[in-house]
C-alpha cells in the first residue's frame, strides 16, 4: 500500500516537472503531401499541442525556417515564410514556399526536437510545357487517311496524352504516344492520331499532369472537301494523258531515230556503190581506150577523103554534062568577060584509090 502511494506521487511529480522541461507536447497533425506547378506556392501545416517551445521546418534535410513560442517565426529567406494559427490549446504553423522550382521536389519535415511519426510530407513540383499541333486547319479528301501529330515539349513529368473527336474521347488504339527525355530534367511526348474523316471535324489533343486543374489542349479543324474527288479524277486524267503523251512521243522519237539511222546507212552504202561503179566505169573506159588505140595501130589511119561510090556518081555526072566546051583561046583582060550563069561546081578531091569495091566502116561506141 505504501509502495503504491509512492508510485502515484512519483507520477504526479513527473507530470509537474516534464512540462517545465518541454517534453510533454507533441505533433497532433503533421504536414501532408503536396503537388504544385512550378512557379506557384506550396503550403504545409504542422499542428502541435500546448506547451511547445520550438518548431523547425526542413526542406530536403536542410533547415529553412524556425518558429519559437517566445519569438515567433525566424525567416532566413523570402522564399520560405510562415503563418501561425492558435485554436484552443493547439498551435498550427503553416510553411509557405514561394515560387516553387523543380529542384524543391522532395521531403518537407516539421521537427519539434523529439521523435514523431507524422512529422514529414513530400513536395512534388511539376512543369507544364508547351502543347501544339502544327496545322490548325486541314483540308481532307474523301477516303483519305491522315495523321495528326500533337507535340508536348518541356514537361515534368511526361504528360498523359489523350484525343477527343468532336467532344468524344478517341479510342487509344487509334493513336500512339512516344516519350523522350528533354533537357534539365524535363520530358517530351509525341502523339500521332491516324483516322479517315467522313465529315468536317474538330480534333483536340489533351495533355494532363497531376498539378494541372484541367488538361492542357490544342485543337485542329478538319475540313472535309467533297469536290476533292472530282479534282482527283481531273488530276488523274491529266496525269494519264501526260503519261500517254510521253509514251507516244518517246515511241515516235525512237521510230524517227531508227529511220534516220536507216537512211544514213543506205546513203553511205549507195555512195560507196556509186564510187565502186565509177571506178569500174573508169577502168572499163581506160581499157576501151587502150583497145581502140591498139586497133588503130593495127588497121591504119582513117581516110578522111573517102566518099562512097554512090554519092560520087550521082554528084559528078550532071555537073560534068553541064560544063561548056573548052575554048582554045583565053580572053584578055581588056576583053569583055561573059559571066555564065552556070553555077560553080565545087571541085571535088579525087580519091587516090579505086571507087570499087565498096568499103563500109562501122564504128560502135560503148
UniProtKB/TrEMBL annotation:
SMART domains: IG. It is a single-pass membrane protein. Its main location: membrane. Keywords: Disulfide bond, Membrane, Signal, Transmembrane, Transmembrane helix. It is found in: Membrane. InterPro entries: CD80_C2-set, Ig-like_dom, Ig-like_dom_sf, Ig-like_fold, Ig_sub. GO terms for biological process: cell-cell adhesion. The keyword Secreted does not apply. Residues 19-114, 115-221 form the Ig-like domain. The chain crosses the membrane at residues 241-265. The keyword Oxidoreductase does not apply. Residues 1-24 form the signal peptide. One of its GO terms (cellular component) is bicellular tight junction. PANTHER family: IMMUNOGLOBULIN SUPERFAMILY MEMBER 5. This is Immunoglobulin superfamily member 5. It comes from Ficedula albicollis (Collared flycatcher).
